[in-house]
Amino acid sequence: xxxxxxxxxxxxxxxxxxxxxxxxxxxxxxxxxxxxxxxxxxxxxxxxxxxxxxxxxxxxxxxxxxxxxxxxxxxxxxxxxxxxxxxxxxxxxxxxxxxxxxxxxxxxxxxxxxxxxxxxxxxxxxxxxxxxxxxxxxxxxxxxxxxxxxxxxxxxxxxxxxxxxxxxxxxxxxxxxxxxxxxxxxxxxxxxxxxxxxxxxxxxxxxxxxxxxxxxxxxxxxxxxxxxxxxxxxxxxxxxxxxxxxxxxxxxxxxxxxxxxxxxxxxxxxxxxxxxxxxxxxxxxxxxxxxxxxxxxxxxxxxxxxxxxxxxxxxxxxxxxxxxxxxxxxxxxxxxxx
Length: 338
Hints:
Layout lengths: L1 E5 L5 H11 L3 E6 L12 E4 L15 E6 L5 H11 L3 E7 L35 H15 L4 E6 L2 E2 L7 H11 L2 E5 L9 E2 H13 L4 E5 L8 H8 L8 E5 L1 H6 L28 H5 L7 H14 L11 H14 L7
Parallel strand pairs: 1-2, 1-4, 2-3, 4-5, 5-6, 6-10, 7-9, 8-11
Helix pairs in contact: 1-5, 2-3, 4-9
């Protein structure tokens, strides 16, 4: 199978390329040639820039499927789809479960309403526009290639090579030991998808010529923050202890959800589950295989150690954490049990 990856050398794209090449597929990478250009010498490499509109390198060639890991703005996605539509069989678009308008009724279904923008022509990607822009990209693709689009809506993607550091924060923090601040309820359900599991499933779906829309996340049905902490403690020094702190305390002190405390959203009217959750049963029926979350934790820790001493892009500093723990010990009721 001939595959064209728009991206392909960073995080998800890198793992998709690895998965495709390991199965003997012919891979072409289209990107700026600036991130990890040494990777995949066996792949054909085309240089261009979607942001500037330079797609000239894609002017020739035919592929069984294009896998778009770098599409965020509808106009840019429209440009690539229009250029390629007569020379590809399938367009696989990596979207997001952030497309959904709300998460008020439990796990989002693929048929649920997606978010909209007051100014749909905007190309600024931020916390408010990211999901609706992805939804508009999906719609634009279906208009250009009706019946030939596979829109994949992953949850939080984690694992080796994740430069967002959201998952990595928890792995590193517990591996350091001591008293660790853990937010919210122990029973709060969380979701993520290991990047390698996602990549393998994307290639499987490409091989089978699938189309449609699928939520893709994991790691286990009903996996709770308590279970996550139990798994993290397996890589932590023996004296490590988790201190659970209530949402209200953290909100009052303006702790930023998902940035200062990754995998945490305070329970509120917009997010009654304390997280963004999606039903991924359709993907499971189509062959999605999820590894044990402990493997993801261990492999992320091993990869993180290869980076040496780096400042994480997400998570509390040790000083911020210590200040919150100290305040909580005075006015709260510290819970150090699992």
